[in-house]
Amino acid sequence: VQLQASGGGLVQAGGSLRLSCAASGRTFSNYVMGWFRQAPGKERELVAGISSGGSTYYADSVKGRFTISLDNAKSTVYLQMNSLKPEDTAVYYCASKKYPPITTLRDRYDYWGQGTLVTVSS
């Protein structure tokens, strides 16, 4: 499975960005897609996850601002990020896990895309 992330960039605080992650190669009927982020000097953390069954997870820091969604026809997962803050600045990675449930443990994810940089200026 190959994951291709896109959509990062520079945005002012309060602005919005939408990240996309397209999956190709072998697919699974039950799976989890997640968006992680890693800021300089910090651990990589799960910010949002979605299962093929529609369950979702959001980190407390992004609840109410970020929305994860899945387009099965396009094998693409999106992360809509609104009301962005400078502390959201990080490299964002999409990842896939073969089977539910959603977990915050990054070593449980089987496939990773390349990162895409999101920079939020104050």
Protein described:
The protein has strands spanning 2-6, 9-12, 17-24, 32-38, 45-51, 56-58, 66-71, 76-81, 90-97, 111-112, 116-121. The termini are far apart. The strands form two sheets. Strands 2, 4, 5, 6, 9, 10 and 11 form a seven-stranded mixed beta sheet that branches. It is built from no helices and eleven strands. The model has no long low-confidence stretch (mean pLDDT 95). A hairpin with a 4-residue loop joins β7 (66-71) and β8. With 122 residues, the protein is mainly beta. Helices cover 0% and strands 51% of the residues.
Tally of DSSP helical segments:
0
Number of strands: 11
Strand content: over 45%
- Into which percent range does the helicity of residues fall? under 10%
Q: Distance between the terminal alpha carbons, to the nearest Å?
A: 37 Å
Can you tell me the overall shape?
globular
Q: Could you tell me the radius of gyration in angstroms?
A: 13 Å
Mean pLDDT, rounded to whole units? 95
Low-pLDDT segments, ≥5 res: none
